[in-house]
Amino acid sequence: MPRYDDLPYRACVGVMVLNAAGHAFIGRRKGGAEHVDATHEWQMPQGGIDEGEDHYEAALRELYEETSIRSVQKLGQTDEWLSYDIPRTVAGKAWNGKYRGQKQKWFALRFTGNDREIDVRAPGGGKHKAEFHDWRWEPVANLPELIIPFKRPIYERVVQEFSRFVK
Q: Which of 21, 65, 133, 151 is deepest in the core (most CB within 10 A)?
């Protein structure tokens, strides 16, 4: 197995979905090797970019696969990649030990639909595995305190960059 410091970052997207009140969608994670802290189970939708996939298209796909949300309008995106390392103690378990963390492009989207559209228990019409078992709208300023601590700097940056879209 390669040394932790030699492992690459997994290319991913993250999505901040804002409702009309300016609150962000967050889901309560069902689990995963990198989620070692039950106190900080909440996160925004995120996921891997398929080979050759456009970053924005990946964001829309991941959002639908995790939440069933399709009714969105693009507000903005981060210019640069934001990265984080997972704890060394779980590096061999998460993503089959292939990555030391993730590098992410983040997108801000306005939710233009009705809350009934959101389905985290049977996302994508039941065609995708549920990653969340609950969800809610949360004031954007609260997001960094709800995320697992090793991802907190990313959330602080995303909140800083996308706060201009909060009404």
A: 151
Residues 6+ apart with CB under 8 A from 76: 107, 108, 161, 162, 164, 165
Give tens-digit pLDDT for 67-115.
999 999 999 999 999 999 988 877 777 777 889 999 999 999 999 999 9
Q: Fill in the amino acid letter for 101.
A: G
Number of C-beta neighbours around residue 115 at 10 A: 10
Indicate yes or no: pTM above 0.70.
yes
The half-sphere exposure of 145 on its side-chain side, counting CA atoms within 13 A, is: 5
pLDDT average, residue stretch 55-77: 98
Domain ranges within the chain, ordered by starting residue: 4-165
Q: What would the two tokens of residue 52 be?
A: 């050759």
